[in-house]
């Protein structure tokens, strides 16, 4: 009996793995994945064959409109020092199944680069998307950005910093909307000036020591009339710095006459805010699909 009880957790784990693999197979069938596509030429200065790449997930069925499917460019988190597009295949698969072309990108990490270089990488990936997404069934006139944690802050920069985009191949901002999933980095200027939490010194690695850079890389100071609409999802149990800066960002949007839907999901911590995207019918996808018109 004791041996049977010891084997039960193993059996349950194996059963769970089988169910997950079966689920992934079913989800993957309606979509195709183009893996490790370089968004910079190999001859470009500083080209990194591991980080200057992206994956494209697209529905197998032809788009119902001549222009193509809406497009979401997803930027991963990881405190600006870690993370990989390869972790987020489930986001690409689930959204492609629901009529969205998804671009999941890598970008260089700190160290040795800092956030301005990371933002430039994201802008270059966005430029590649606008120039090439038609070949994958996407509509370059309907490109949206999405990010979790540090990726949320980088996505917000793409939506608000026209100068960043112009310096990286986009004379006009193509972003039609931004989906914020528990975003970090919206106001690193205030955060790094205060240094009120244990371990805050670690963020000087990606942001450096210059307060002018902190402010320049904080999207909250780039809010102005005419920027794309934002959609916020915040964990009810997330870090105070994330809920605080997101709330201030929302208030500034409201002040310029651009209210942003702002949903707090009770009981959710920071990491589960992205893990919930494994399930196709979660609340974030529902709001996203409505925003992009899928």
From TrEMBL:
Residues 54-234 form the BD-FAE-like domain. Keywords: Hydrolase. InterPro entries: AB_hydrolase_fold, BD-FAE-like_dom, GDXG_lipolytic_enzyme. GO terms for molecular function: hydrolase activity. SUPFAM superfamilies: alpha/beta-Hydrolases. This is Alpha/beta hydrolase.
